[in-house]
Each structure stands twice: as structure tokens, then as C-alpha cells.
Amino acid sequence: MTIQAPSAANQLALTLEQFIGKAEAFLQNHYVVGSDSSDVQTILKAIANLQLDVDTERLEEEFRLHQEKRDLMVDHFDSSWF
Question: CA dist 51 to 38, 44, 54, 73, Å?
Fold first, then answer.
């Protein structure tokens, strides 16, 4: 068994889960006691960090490789019928 780095998709899911936890906490606090300037700044910073944490280039590369592999498999199966 080998240890593999988490895929970009798994990392994205984890990043989104962490952000959603922060967003839910913000909303619960907002509906119970309201939000002050520091609360708003905190959630805006979390939104900005979310954008920085998402590695779009890695996701795009992983998706491209997945598509190429799928296309090769389709080509293989299509050619095997001849």
C-alpha cells in the first residue's frame, strides 16, 4: 500500500467544508445577536482565503488528465469492436 497525496478534488472538498463551517457559525451568530463590523470583516477574510486556498490550476490539470484517460479508454473500447 502506498501513500498518495490527496487529489485536488479532495482538497477542494476539505477547503469548502472548512469554509462552510465558518459561514454557518457567522450566520448563526448573525441571526441570534446580529453582526458587527469585526464579524463582517472576519467572514469577508474567510471568503478571500477560500479563493486563495482553491488551487484551480491543479484542479484543471487533474481534470484534463482524467478526460484524456477517459478518451483513451473510449477509443480503446471503440477500436476493439473491429
Answer: 20, 11, 6, 34
